[in-house]
């Protein structure tokens, strides 16, 4: 069994945070990983306790900024081209709040829209040793595009009937 590391506490907190998201579950595709997934799509690759702490997340909005950090690199195997970023924390202290934001962004990129929409209206509860936090995300105008498309399709059908 691998020895305990200081980062094991951070790993547990991040896993608990990720598992509190709608439809999230653990996925272990190979030894040495306990990843977070939604609908069997991984949204955070995490090492296991006792191993050097590493995390990979899909960051479509913030990958360029994340890659400026000294402990990050594009995720290997071609995933970096799609916005995946890997952070290694052997020599650096991880910022839990930053990594929770990465997990949130990655979840939103990988999860079905129906689950993301539910997340925008339902607070996510996470427990830490000292207290319980409620995090509520809000996104405005999430359905603007779909409403516009529906209206234009309806108008097109009506116009076709009138012309015929």
Brief summary of the model shown:
By secondary structure, this protein is an alpha+beta fold. It contains 5 helices and 8 strands. The strands form 2 sheets. The protein has a 6-stranded antiparallel beta sheet, with helices on one face. It has a two-stranded antiparallel ribbon with strand order 7-8.
Characterise the protein shown here.
The chain has helices spanning 7-19, 63-66, 96-110, 113-121, 144-163, and strands at residues 24-27, 35-38, 41-46, 54-58, 72-74, 84-88, 124-127, 132-135. The chain is of the alpha+beta class and 164 residues long. The chain has one domain: Aspartate Aminotransferase, domain 1, CATH 3.90.1150.30. The chain has a six-stranded antiparallel beta sheet, with helices on one face. A two-stranded antiparallel sheet has the order 7-8. Strand 2 (35-38) and strand 3 (41-46) form a beta hairpin. Helix 1 packs parallel to helix 3. The N and C termini lie far apart (76 Å). Mean pLDDT is 78; it is low at 127-164.
